[in-house]
Amino acid sequence: MFRKLVSRNPDLARLVESGYAVAFDSNCLVVRDVPYLDRQGALQSGAIVAKLVFVDEEHVQQDDHQIYFAGGHPHQVDGSPILNLGGGETRIQLSSVCADVVVQRSFSNKPLPQGSFLDFYAKIESYVSVISGPAIERHPTATPLTYRVVETFEPDPIFKLQDTLTSRAQIGDLNTGFADETVAIIGLGGTGAYLLDLLVKTPVPNIRAFDGDTYHLHTAFRSPGRFATEELRTAKATVYGARYDNFRHGLTVEATYIDHDTAERLDGVTFAFVCVDKGSSRAGIFDALISRNIPFIDVGMGLNRKHGTIDGMLRATYYPVDEGATMRDRKLADLSDAADDIYRSNIQIGELNALNACLAVIRYKQIRGFYRDTEGHRHMLFGIDDLGLTGDAYDEN
């Protein structure tokens, strides 16, 4: 990333050429070796951190006029704090490659009269003059121009493009619950396709998706993303595998159904989503998952036109490892085929599929410690008529 950004952004290149100790971390510019005086007048060394906004994969621009600082508050030669540095104490997360840079505060010194810096070079120069000026005055040999190159390279094992979302949202610590996951999505119909679309953008290292069906025209109406005519009459596995190939590693999409004969494809899976609309298929999949001690979430819909307009429920049911058989025996999901299932026969509704997928993914992220969970729901129902969500935190005791 260092060479790419410096070669494509003249202001960053100018910082390096001038001698600043430039490095990059996720979506941040890091400038180490910034001298400053502490309260006692002793010479210290800090680091400036500035947010990068990626215009594309190679070009960046400023977030705003502010910076972050790793170090104490800089002082004047007489021991008084430098006053024209607004902001305050704060923290931001950097990756392990910048573990030595511990941000402690933010600074806001807006340039007047324009109110913004021309580029990153002007921004760093301005802040360094304010922060380091007293230190250089007292210690003439002190300099921020150390020509130290800190070129870190930590290839992303999951994503093929830079994950600026995690660093921008400061959620790196919350992603640890996905570190060892191999998630299966069984069925790539409407809800399964939206589940896949959501999960490929999470830091789950390995995703396995299974569907032996073909991509037809009606599929496009409840499938996220672009549509290409050449996808028609092609295996769903081929379509969805190609759709996300440039986005991430660790995704396999197989043109197969999961049943008794193919259940070994689930070996090594740590969590699963069941997205099938046929009760008998669901029953076999449940048996395979429960026998392998794999926790899973099953999704489904029950739709009707009793009142003329479409009504019904969306469902997301969680089957923990230690309660899988008990939850199955509660018969919260259909385990046999219904002849008059209108959902399978003639209704394709993308927004309901997407919402059902969202409910399942949010519940999964609660289970893995990403979202707060105060209820421990096992069984969730969303009513279309009143837009109401009810949950059941089942306790067999």
Largest sheet: 8 strands, mixed
- Strand proportion, as a percent range, falls in 15-25%
Overall SS class = alpha+beta
Give the mean pLDDT: 90
Low-confidence stretches: none
Radius of gyration: 27 Å
Number of strands: 17
The total count of helices amounts to 11
Q: N-to-C terminal Cα separation, in Å?
A: 55 Å
Shape: elongated
H-E string: HHEEEEEEEHHEHEEHEHEEHEEHHHEE
Strand order of the largest sheet: 12-9-8-13-14-15-16-17
Q: Report helical residue fraction.
A: 25-40%
Q: Can I get a quick summary?
A:
This protein is α+β, with helices and mostly antiparallel strands.
Please describe what this structure looks like.
This protein is an alpha+beta fold and 397 residues long. 26% of the residues lie in helices and 24% in strands. Helix 5 (190-199) crosses helix 11 (350-367). The longest helix is centred in the first third of the chain and has 19 residues, at 120-138.
Write the layout of secondary structure elements.
Elements: H1 2-8, H2 10-18, E1 21-25, E2 28-37, E3 43-54, E4 60-62, E5 67-70, E6 86-89, E7 105-108, H3 120-138, H4 164-169, E8 182-186, H5 190-199, E9 206-210, E10 214-215, H6 217-220, E11 234-235, H7 236-243, E12 251-254, E13 271-274, H8 279-291, E14 296-307, E15 309-319, H9 324-329, H10 342-346, H11 350-367, E16 379-383, E17 388-392
Parallel strand pairs: 8-9, 8-13, 9-12, 13-14
Antiparallel strand pairs: 1-2, 2-3, 3-4, 3-5, 5-7, 6-7, 10-11, 14-15, 15-16, 16-17
Helix pairs in contact: 1-2, 2-3, 5-11
